[in-house]
Design a protein that fits this description.
Blueprint: E1 2-7, E2 10-13, E3 18-26, E4 33-39, E5 46-52, E6 58-60, E7 68-73, E8 78-83, E9 92-98, E10 104-105, E11 109-114
Amino acid sequence: QVQLVESGGGLVQAGGSLRLSCAASGRIFGIYAMGWLRQAPGKEREIVAAINWSTGFTNYADSVKGRFTISKDNAKNTVYLQMNSLKPEDTAVYYCASGVGLNTRGQGTQVTVSS
């Protein structure tokens, strides 16, 4: 079992930046991928970004391409999400996730972008 702990959420003005971190522990050997999902009130959960743990290949939702960057530190078992040029529509609870289907998730961290 993998445990994921997110940090770095908060309140920021539109146009600002935040960096989310997610530390993984437990049975992390062989993690296929890690990523970030988000869920806004009244909306379905969506995959924001994902990264292959071995190759570093990344994938992004169209809504965040060019603004968000996912990265990893294998030595620290940590994945990051750098979020720039934030928009009010980025407001959501952001969840760190791991596994082939990103089906192991953390508790989430709130990101609020004010206009």
